[in-house]
């Protein structure tokens, strides 16, 4: 199974376990809302643009609200089974390139919103894949920081990437999963260490990481 497939299955299992009213890290969304978002994303291409285009957000919200009214077990099954044959997400390669980070991040959105959550030990190959995703996303995520930013793996690989050029430099260190969550705006819930001069750290803290 691909990383995306494993994360999808694990997330669906967790959604069943927690029920429709459990909290998530997505502001304003409980588990029902998150499940509705994932189902709409893969099954309603007419509503997908509203995720990124504010002018179309109203339609996306209405479609998602309609999905959220479905029976919860039906909604989770839509998440578990994934896109239909005619969905763009069913095309070869789409699962790897568009669903890996989506399902890893949202799985953690549910896990880390629960009391007593613990960090997962992911295989090295999975961490490597997430590190590639971090490297790809970093320049966009930190484009408006106004200071230098370096992301550094804290595991055995010990590699780093310049996310934003400039001086002074703030360095964010952590495992690839944690850095991925940080670049997706979950900085308060990512287990990372931020170092560097106070001015650099302040500029980084003030930066919105919404893409």
Oligomer: single chain
What coarse outline follows from CA principal-axis ratios?
globular
Count structural domains: 2
Low-confidence stretches: none
The portion of residues forming beta strands comes to 5-15%
Nutshell version of this structure?
By secondary structure, the chain is α+β, with helices and mostly antiparallel strands. Helix content is 49%, strand content 9%.
Structure description:
The two termini are 29 Å apart. The protein has a 4-stranded mixed beta sheet. The longest helix has 18 residues, at 94-111. The protein has helices spanning 3-18, 31-43, 57-68, 72-81, 94-111, 124-141, 176-183, 198-205; strands at 148-153, 160-164, 169-174, 193-195. The chain folds into 2 domains: 3-111, no CATH class; 124-205, 2-Layer Sandwich (Nonspecific Lipid-transfer Protein, Chain A). It is an alpha+beta fold and 211 residues long. The radius of gyration is 18 Å and the shape is globular.
Secondary structure layout:
Blueprint: H1 3-18, H2 31-43, H3 57-68, H4 72-81, H5 94-111, H6 124-141, E1 148-153, E2 160-164, E3 169-174, H7 176-183, E4 193-195, H8 198-205
Parallel strand pairs: 1-3
Antiparallel strand pairs: 1-2, 3-4
Descriptors for this entry?
single chain, 211 residues, Nonspecific Lipid-transfer Protein, Chain A, 8 helices, 4 strands, 49% helix
